[in-house]
Amino acid sequence: MKPRVSLQDSAFRNGNFSLRIDPVRSEDLGLYEAQVKYKAEVHSCHVELGVITVTLSPPNPVIENELLSMSCNSSHRGSLVETCWFHNQHLGPNSRTFCSSSGTLSIFHPAMSDAGSWRCQLRYSDKEIISATFNLQILGFDGPTNPVVYAAAGSAAD
């Protein structure tokens, strides 16, 4: 897993033996065990790593007005009840939420306003809620709605 894995050696003296994986891949899921030996004592802990996969079709960046499908899947073994998609979670007119029983969201004519932070939230029958956030990039034009631009003679026009 090198070079994606690191230990924070400087935190050992404070009892922090954390393992960092960056970036996480689907094949990293599973059970991890940490063992710490101090003098004659051995301490261990087990941590299970679950993975959420967000898939875009076509892949990021997306071209404006081309059909976009976003799907969200998890390694969680429970029965999926609902998938919700949140766009620009800040309160206001640009905040949007979509929920469905399937894990896929389709945007038929993505626009520049669809770019930005998206979060998928998976809710399972065992009450487990899992989420992942990603940044959607849209390639397109974000110009004036009126194609006529006026500029003063002798000035610059963009």
Automatic annotation (TrEMBL):
InterPro entries: Ig-like_dom, Ig-like_dom_sf, Ig-like_fold. Residues 50-131 form the Ig-like domain. The gene is Lag3. GO terms for biological process: interleukin-15-mediated signaling pathway; positive regulation of ERK1 and ERK2 cascade; T cell activation. It comes from Phainopepla nitens. This is LAG3 protein. GO terms for molecular function: MHC class II protein binding; protein tyrosine kinase binding. The lineage of its organism: Eukaryota, Metazoa, Chordata, Craniata, Vertebrata. One of its GO terms (cellular component) is external side of plasma membrane.
